[in-house]
Glutamine synthetase (Gymnopus androsaceus JB14), 485 residues
Amino acid sequence: MTSTKHAPKTFEDLKMILMDDTDKVKVAGIDVDGVLRGKFMSKEKFLSAASSDGFGFCSVIFGWDIHDAVYSRELLISNKANGYRDLLASIDLSTYRRIPWENNVPFFLVSFLDPDTKEPLVVDPRGIMRITSDRATSLRRSCYAGVEYEFFNFKETPVSLAEKKFQNLTPLTPGMHGYSLLRTQLNNDYFHAIFDEALKFGVDIEAHHTETGPGVLETALAYTDALRMADNAILFKFLTKSIGMQYGVVPTFMAKPWGNLPGCSGHTHVSLRDDSGKNIFAVSDAELSTGRSGAANDDVKFLSEEAEHFLAGILDGIADGMPMLVPTINGYKRLVGGEAFWAPNAITYGYDSRAASIRIISPPSVPPAATRLEIRVPGADMNPYFAISAIFLLGLRGIEKKIKLSTPPMSQLTPEDKKNGTIKMLPTSLEAATERMMRPESIAREKGMFGDVFVEHYGGTREHEVKVWNEAVTNWEVERYIELA
């Protein structure tokens, strides 16, 4: 079994692992929509690139959308004015693994650099994640995260999807069967292959089970450092879709494939550690019996003061960072609020509350070392690099500014508080979220956050997504108006 645990540390190590059994290598980077964009390279070309700064990769991957349509207007990073010039693709040797379902071909992720300055490209998902990690390091902190994905599965193929025009798809299993030990036996080989091949591929899984909904599975990826977590999250999607093709299954990480059923979440767990590896969100041993004195309320009394500032920072800026958490038109249809689907649409928090946007996981329900925050806003369609970066950048901003909690927790709120303004609501559409993020005074634009270059480029990509949606004529419109209007 090969994984990133066996990654080469030097160029000589790299030559050794590629010495005998391969004549080609697969590489991939990530675009703004979280789509892997890659190629096969000959071993000779790959080794040449690995021994230098990298290799050229067409910048159009940051100039077109999820379906390869060029963006509606010129953007900063990739455009016709510069001829879609090459970016520098820098091979990250630490990401080495082999793809078990592709004859164990060696695989590496790349990060994209500015070809002139050799600096991380700010709109490259791995680039902004590295910038985020560096900011935490400057505060002598390390970012750790975990992601849980829910995803529907259909007994379809890419060909049948097109033939059916993506309508009337057959779910993998019928009915609502969360945590079922029976439903997994109906597609036992597929269910186990996801778990087993993930381990071979260096994507560690903590838990894998059925979730409520026809053909829905949920997988919790093992907690690790934030960049590795984002890599694992994006590669888990690649793995699951690849395994699905072998079994005649199409998994979807679309946030809301059915209007009348729960959507697919991308719940994200986060914490910070100090130089010694200690979880700095945890209270001291002396505070375990009564909680921290000076805590804003009982819901946060088993969080450290630094964790409380981190939480307050997320609450303060989450609305300005929504396109990084919920990047698609469809994603906002998942955020319906209420108890039924546990998909929050308000700026709320609470101890062990799955109805809140931020769930506090702390003693007494877990040991201090497991203290963390679960951000429940993102759907499974998130770009994990942008979502995790947004969470940590906002939280670190809260620590630096010592932001205080200004709203009560869910346990102290009533249904009337949404009406009287006590509870602030999140943007309800990608259009509204993008407009808010791109305002001159947006927190996303601040120094130490995403900055103007990122906001202008990424905001332009979201404006394009809205434009394409606004120009589309949907089946709903045709059915509603074609005869009676």
In short: The CA atoms of residues 75 and 457 lie 6 Å apart. Residues 226-246 form the longest helix (21 residues). The longest strand covers residues 86-99. The domain at 4-121 is CATH 3.10.20.70 (Ubiquitin-like (UB roll)).
